[in-house]
Every structure is written in structure tokens, then in C-alpha cells.
Amino acid sequence: MEALLIQHVRIVGGLLIVLALLHLIFPTYFNWKKDLKSLSLINRQMMIVHTFFIALIVFLMGLLFVYAAPDIVNSQLGKTMSLGIAIFWTCRLVIQFFGYSSELWRNKVFETYAHVGFSFLWIYLSVVFWCNWLYLL
Q1: What is the pLDDT along the chain (137 residues), one digit of tens a residue?
Q2: Which of 46, 65, 69, 103 would staple 13 via disulfide (CB 3.0–4.6 Å)?
Q3: What does each C-alpha distance from 134 to 15, 32, 49, 74, 121 come to in angstroms?
Q4: Are residues 133 and 121 in the same domain?
């Protein structure tokens, strides 16, 4: 079980690195230059700066999980971190269904695939860290 958890924590790390890098295309894909123009300067800059820091923390989490997976699985600190991370990604999963309108993806092929794909990603991330927290409690 331990080796399996370590492998899944590493997989999660790789997925989070990819997710962080996806943030690089947000400004272009979501047409922020045009769409954010109507916002006040502070709101526009907060959107951009917060997106950068979200991407940075997701990237750093990914690196941590890739390179320190055995420590995450085998240490008390790793178990404690796993509880917080499990809560975080479970909240993100709930937001996927209740924080975004279904109008954003319903009857749109690409957006529906993205919605379903990210839903499975949030489930996977949540399950890995709940399992790690519960393992040998």
C-alpha cells in the first residue's frame, strides 16, 4: 500500500505541474486583455496577480509531491499536510459543481469535456490525499 501511495502522490505532483503551466494560457484563452478592460485597475491587477500566485503554489505543490512523495506518505508532517490538501481539493471539487454555472459548459463539447475532466482530476487529487491521511492513522 505504501509504494502505491507514493506512486500516486508522484502522479498527482506531475498533474499539478501541468495544471500550473496551463495557467500560462489563461490570459489569451479567456481574452483577458479585452474582458478585464472594464474592471478597475486594482481589480484587473488582482485578477492577474492572484492567478500568478495560484499557478505558483500549484506548481510548487507539484514539485513537492514529485520529489518528496516518500516523506509525504511516511511522515507525521506528511500525514498532517495530506489532511489539509485533501480538504483543499475536496472544496475545489464542490466548487466545480456549485460555484460555476452549468451554462458555462452545457451543450458545448470542449467545455463539457473540460468540466468532466477537471471533475475527475479534483476527485483523484482528493482521494489520493484522503487515502494518504487515513493510511496507518
Answers
A1: 899 999 999 999 999 999 999 999 999 999 999 999 999 999 999 999 999 999 999 999 999 999 999 999 999 999 999 999 999 999 999 999 999 999 999 999 999 999 999 999 999 999 999 999 998 66
A2: 65
A3: 22, 41, 35, 12, 20
A4: yes
